Amino acid sequence: MSDRVEAVVFDIGKVLVEWDLRLIYRDLIPDPAERDWFVEHVVTPEWHFQHDAGRPLAEIVPERIALFPQHEALIRRYASHFGDSVPGPVPGTAELVEALHARGVPLFAITNFGAEFWPEFAPRFPVLERFRDIVISGVERLVKPDPAIYALAETRFGLPGSAMLFVDDNAHNIVAASDCGWHAHHFKNAAGLEAELVRRGLL
């Protein structure tokens, strides 16, 4: 694999923006322990992942209500208030995107994100306009860490994985990208990413 990186490919959730399902319920379930239980057992990240993978809300919400009829109102709130789970930007990352953009580094993104939530979400974060293309799992019905989504990204972005640095907070996605021949950075915070970008001569 070549050491030369020509472009940077970002994950979005927990890299560019904060994400926490519990925030949808902070008013309706004020007790933190109860809220944690609800997100661990009812409106879970694993269930939410079905929407990221392309299943429509019209299917997954009624299915969940059938399993937990006593929580119908709270399950429906997931669909109507998903935006509450994205409270704002991850500190420092947008500034790195702007710095890379100013230097002319091609920027792309691959995100596990529901197709129905994307149109409301994207306009809230103008930094997304810096990306030349974004592969959205719910639109493509492909999700990280499936190697197929990285292959699609290479085709869409017009570069081999060996020419791109992939930035993600999820270790499984990092391993998958590396196995596909990409350069990869396991995101912990903006300071660590900045050091990686400087080391590679991108900043």
| CATH topology title of the largest domain | Rossmann fold
Q: CATH superfamily of the largest domain, called what?
A: HAD superfamily/HAD-like
Number of DSSP strand runs: 5
- The termini sit apart by 21 Å
What is the C-level CATH assignment of the largest domain? Alpha Beta
Instruction: List the total number of helices.
Output: 10
Which structural class should the secondary elements be placed in? alpha/beta
CATH architecture call of the largest domain: 3-Layer(aba) Sandwich
What's the Cα radius of gyration? Answer: 18 Å
Give the strand line-up of the largest sheet.
3-2-1-4-5
Uncertain ranges: none
Number of domains: 2
Largest sheet: 5 strands, parallel
- Which band does the percent of strand residues land in? 5-15%
Could you say which overall geometry the principal axes of the C-alpha atoms support? globular
Q: Topology as H/E string?
A: EHHHHHEHEHHEHEH
Helical residue percent? 40-55%
Mean of the pLDDT scores? 97
Describe this structure in words.
It is a single chain. The chain is of the alpha/beta class. It folds into 2 domains: 125 residues, Rossmann fold, CATH 3.40.50.1000; 65 residues, no CATH class. 42% of the residues lie in helices and 11% in strands. It is built from 10 helices and 5 strands, in the order E-H-H-H-H-H-E-H-E-H-H-E-H-E-H. The chain has a 5-stranded parallel β-sheet with strand order 3-2-1-4-5, sandwiched between helices. Strand 2, helix 6 and strand 3 form a beta-alpha-beta unit. Helix 3 packs antiparallel against helix 4. 33% of the residues are buried.
